[in-house]
């Protein structure tokens, strides 16, 4: 299944398809956005040109990186931002006091044609304080975008980051499957999690709806209920199976399986460790193999993994092999995963040698059962033979952290820079319209992100530039970049006439995310005590921040 292409398409006169979730409308916002819009209109300020930055203050999960996601849905919202007659009536009924007819007329004409959106590419590794989106436009309109845009970015970036962290712990060679649908926070939480886990590095999902919507590869076989629903092989009515090449037919596949089970039980190399297996389990495996001979993967822990599940799987797999089919593998959903995967691997390797079946020893082993980052790390330390992980609850619910905490702050209005002050320095905003760059060193790793004023010259390769911490005057360093990347690109130009960046296909976003992680220095993305990544401002912007800070902060008086 191919990942679908995102981006603009002509549909019923639209410039672009609407958001995936039909509930994402202009009403998906906080009431105070509309009360402010009314107050702006009453004051005659509603068309003042404003610039807002969307950013976060701290990386999630105790780490030092975040994966930016949710941009496509934001652009789809902006492209289709229009209030219906019914929605306007509801707003007017809801606002305190009476709504003037002039404001109603204003709401009828609101859209985002005069809004500009500049953003970092979706799937990029990002850091605190650096704007993920810069939204420019009439202040009342941009204010109405605040809540839905934050909603679309916060969870998306959190779950994409969670997925990327699981990928880093699992390693490049392991397959990761997202199994979180049944435990996710509602249908939208499930659909969003499937999409953004894929961006973060997962290979497939069990979520059929997400597979259809986004073209994410689907994976899944059967549950314990399927295994325990069988009582004996006598229940299997249709026993024939064609060879994979169609050249002949095995009329009694069940008997072929039984004959292989007998050979396994008598195999000296297994040391007579395989005795009587559960025949109802064998019937279930045989039935499933008859239904899906090219995709046979068995859940082997319903009764006993090593005494029944694995031998029964092997019997069915060897019978399929006789007919030219290659089995996929087994899944473990309980017990000591490190030990059981090792024991299963030993049996596979013995059978490969005993019966002369090249490659059988490498049969895939999938593990599930409430896995999380810590479990994967523990398995790595213990040693295991798992090839593939199915991860659900802890992944899609972001159990380790409830929210990312993105904010949407005014940084300029009518070309006048604005700053938000706080006794907590981490909550002081960085004023004015900015340009953002990533500077790379000789080894190809990114060294630092730097923000500059809009009209400052771009950092140049090979030229030394002073990078300063936004608020700590003693933290500063000269950097001589070997490569300079501008981070903010125009994804919605409004009436500006600027060239718009196309929204890439989902798989391209995923590939970009994986490449981004490879470009990070390993100590920035490690699990234990990661090194903080440097986010800086230019010397000129640093001076301006502190000038504006002193100018806006009231001077106290001691009596």
TrEMBL record:
One of its GO terms (biological process) is NAD+ biosynthetic process via the salvage pathway. The keyword Metal-binding applies. Pathway: Cofactor biosynthesis; NAD(+) biosynthesis; nicotinate D-ribonucleotide from nicotinate: step 1/1. Transiently phosphorylated on a His residue during the reaction cycle. Phosphorylation strongly increases the affinity for substrates and increases the rate of nicotinate D-ribonucleotide production. Dephosphorylation regenerates the low-affinity form of the enzyme, leading to product release. It catalyses: 5-phospho-alpha-D-ribose 1-diphosphate + nicotinate + ATP + H2O = nicotinate beta-D-ribonucleotide + ADP + phosphate + diphosphate. The keyword Phosphoprotein applies. It is an enzyme of class 6 (ligase). GO terms for molecular function: glycosyltransferase activity; metal ion binding; nicotinate phosphoribosyltransferase activity. Transmembrane segments: none annotated. InterPro entries: Aldolase_TIM, NAPRTase_C, NAPRTase_N, Nic_PRibTrfase-Fam, Nic_PRibTrfase_pncB, Nicotinate_pribotase-like_C. Its cofactor is Mn(2+); Mg(2+). Its EC number is 6.3.4.21. Signal peptide: none annotated. Catalyzes the first step in the biosynthesis of NAD from nicotinic acid, the ATP-dependent synthesis of beta-nicotinate D-ribonucleotide from nicotinate and 5-phospho-D-ribose 1-phosphate. Helps prevent cellular oxidative stress via its role in NAD biosynthesis. Belongs to the NAPRTase family. This is Nicotinate phosphoribosyltransferase. It comes from Gossypium mustelinum. The lineage of its organism: Eukaryota, Viridiplantae, Streptophyta, Embryophyta, Tracheophyta.
